[in-house]
């Protein structure tokens, strides 16, 4: 493609990755380089490709320039653009057919190289897997460590206390600076911080935004308007801080009424854990408060699901699939994740357990009565040591053994 945009939250590695690929780099957070590009944008068009425009949103009009330059010479590999925010209130050409957008996320489990994955999500989608196998050395303690260790590359080598301080500073910068850069002056930062903590408590749930607001401001008569909290959500989304999983709404109706609310996740489970002030030891001992939302589960269960969600988002993107969740409108049935590509589906339940028993596959069995069996693969992701296939055809896969 002639132009590729790498989107993602600050700290995921966009600049480092793109710099390795670029022959010419313009860092638009650098005031001198930004002023140079602003004064003479033709320099960008004439630079040796690939040309990297780092944090392009600092000069939003560059988007239309890149589109025009690509129209004039659609040579593959001309431009790389990185951005940690989507400009608000700016009208941009879609870039369709000219500019491709790719989201970079914090490191998935496979990218953390804990062990070699033995089960391919793409192969599961193709229906090419009859039985799964493989052994994992990662146990419950290892997954809890990965939740708090973060998928942000620079944070992973830090000692626990330093990482906590870094995560606190990360969130504070979002509240104190990034919202203002997106055009919203936050008059009560403490209310926004409380809302973020309530959103973190709603991890893995389909809690309504009104219930998240109520949880953020308990007992307060003068609450922020609902429209204000929707602005919070929209700006956090534009900053790539929210990575919600949309509801699966297939075109035909044999499912009956399905819920339409997305499942709530922050960009990195470590951010949610830090906002909730839960430590590795507290998660292992189960001494944390109950989470928020209609789904059942412990805080550790929700955060483990968030770790799996982060990985599935990455794998689905790599293999050209889409990630959803399924929940009937009254909550009788739900499946944690639906990975869909073309007309094939992998349905995934996430269980904080080493094995999958009968109750763990009930909703997968229900789904099998609704979706053609030759286009459905059923999986339970666990914390166990071994991948295996059950007699009923459900594959049980430790989270660390699942890859793209």
Alpha-beta content class? alpha/beta
User: What proportion of the residues form beta strands (DSSP E)?
Assistant: 15-25%
Largest sheet: 6 strands, mixed
Strand order of the largest sheet: 7-8-9-10-12-11
Shape: globular
Q: Termini separation (Å)? A: 23 Å
Low-pLDDT sequence parts: none
Provide mean pLDDT, rounded: 92
Keywords:
single chain; 404 residues; Rossmann fold; six-stranded mixed β-sheet; five-stranded parallel β-sheet; 14 helices; globular
Polypeptide structure, described:
The longest helix has 22 residues, at 160-181. It is built from 14 helices and 13 strands. The chain folds into 2 domains: 3-103, Rossmann fold; 110-403, no CATH class. By secondary structure, it is of the alpha/beta class. The chain has helices spanning 14-21, 31-39, 42-46, 62-72, 121-126, 140-149, 160-181, 189-201, 209-216, 226-238, 269-275, 280-285, 299-318, 362-368, and strands at 3-7, 24-27, 51-54, 79-83, 99-103, 119-120, 322-327, 334-341, 344-350, 376-382, 388-389, 395-398, 402-403. The strands form 3 sheets. It has a 6-stranded mixed sheet, with helices on both faces. Strands 2-3-4-1-5 form a 5-stranded parallel sheet, sandwiched between helices.
């Amino acid at each position: 493609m002639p132009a590729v945009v790498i989107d993602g939250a600050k700290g995921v590695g966009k600049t480092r990755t793109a710099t390795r690929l670029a022959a010419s780099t313009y860092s638009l957070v650098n005031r001198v380089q930004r002023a140079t590009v602003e004064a003479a944008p033709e320099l960008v068009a004439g630079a040796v490709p690939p040309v990297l425009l780092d944090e392009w949103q600092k000069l939003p009009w560059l988007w239309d320039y890149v589109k025009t330059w690509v129209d004039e010479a659609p040579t593959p590999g001309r431009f790389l653009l990185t951005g940690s925010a989507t400009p608000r209130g700016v009208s941009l050409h879609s870039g369709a057919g000219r500019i491709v957008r790719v989201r970079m996320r914090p490191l998935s489990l496979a990218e953390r190289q804990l062990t070699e994955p033995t089960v391919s999500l793409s192969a599961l989608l193709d229906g090419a897997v009859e039985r799964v196998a493989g052994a994992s050395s990662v146990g419950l303690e290892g997954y809890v460590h990965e939740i708090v260790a973060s998928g942000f590359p620079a944070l992973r080598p830090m000692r626990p206390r330093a990482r906590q301080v870094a995560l606190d500073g990360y969130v504070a910068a979002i509240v104190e600076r990034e919202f203002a850069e997106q055009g919203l002056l936050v008059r009560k930062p403490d209310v926004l911080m409380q809302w973020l903590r309530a959103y973190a408590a709603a991890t893995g749930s389909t809690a309504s935004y009104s219930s998240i607001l109520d949880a953020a401001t308990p007992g307060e008569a003068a609450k922020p308007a609902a429209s204000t909290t929707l602005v919070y959500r929209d700006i956090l989304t534009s900053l790539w801080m929210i990575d919600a999983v949309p509801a699966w709404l297939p075109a035909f109706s044999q499912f009956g009424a399905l819920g339409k609310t997305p499942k709530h996740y922050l960009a990195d489970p470590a951010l949610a854990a830090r906002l909730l002030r839960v430590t590795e030891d507290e998660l292992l001992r189960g001494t944390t408060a109950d989470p928020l939302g209609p789904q059942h589960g412990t805080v550790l269960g929700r955060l483990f699901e968030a770790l799996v969600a982060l990985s599935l988002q990455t794998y689905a993107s790599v293999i050209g699939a889409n990630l959803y969740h399924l929940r009937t409108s009254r909550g009788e049935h739900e499946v944690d994740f639906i990975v869909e590509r073309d007309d094939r589906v992998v349905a995934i339940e996430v269980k904080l357990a080493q094995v999958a028993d009968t109750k763990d596959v009930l909703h997968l069995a229900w789904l099998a009565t609704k979706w053609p069996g030759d286009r459905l693969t059923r999986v339970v992701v666990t914390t166990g040591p071994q991948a295996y296939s059950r007699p009923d055809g459900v594959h049980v896969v430790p989270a660390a053994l699942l890859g793209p």
